[in-house]
Structures are given as structure tokens and as C-alpha cells.
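User: Please predict the structure of the protein below. I'd like the answer in C-alpha cell form so I can feed it into my own downstream comparison script.

Assistant: Understood. Taking the following sequence of 118 residues as input:
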Amino acid sequence: QVQLVESGGGLVQPGGSLRLSCAASGIVFRLLTMGWYRQGQGKQRELVATITTSGNTNYADSVKGRFTISRDNAKNTVYLQMNSLKPEDTAVYYCNRFSPSISTINYWGQGTQVTVSS
């Protein structure tokens, strides 16, 4: 049974930082490219960052240089360090395996809300 538990969200002022965590179970975590996704209100879910099994990372242009994805295979956990946050980063953030087509992912955790506002 797949379980993804995201945490670390909250309310932060523009320019602030947050670190998100996602604990995974029920998947062979160490063999999967993992990703962080987000969904703003009234918007489609989008891929924010990915990390391969060997630690190679990739980022959406909108977060490049501000966000850092990392993973700890011993803990089955993936992280997202978010710096220089902007109001447009406000969204519910989810982790999951990477898929080039989000619609093929049929299980999501509850997500963690990030709100960037003064």
C-alpha cells in the first residue's frame, strides 16, 4: 500500500524559506526518480523538481536557483528546500514518483500547504 506523507508547509513572508519533507512507504523508493509537484488554487498540478536515483536534479524554470530537492534513501524521504519564496509559490505541495504524464499517477498523499504572503 503506497503511502506518501508530506509535511513542513506553512505561512511565510515573501523572501522567506521553508523545508518540506515527504516520507514514502509501499514503494521501492531507492529505485525511483522522485518529484515534488504543486497545485495552486484554480490551477493544474505541475511538476516543480525531480531527483533521480543517483541524485541528479532538475527544476522548473519558475523555481530554478531558489528550490533544492534532495533525498535520503535510508529514510525513504525526499526533501524540498525552498528559499526566496514568492507569493506565486503559494500552493499545495505533493511528492510522488516522477512521471512525464501526471495523469498516469493514481495515488497522491494529502499534500502540505505553502502560503507566501505578507
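That's the full C-alpha cell string. The CA atoms of residues 45 and 58 lie 17 Å apart.
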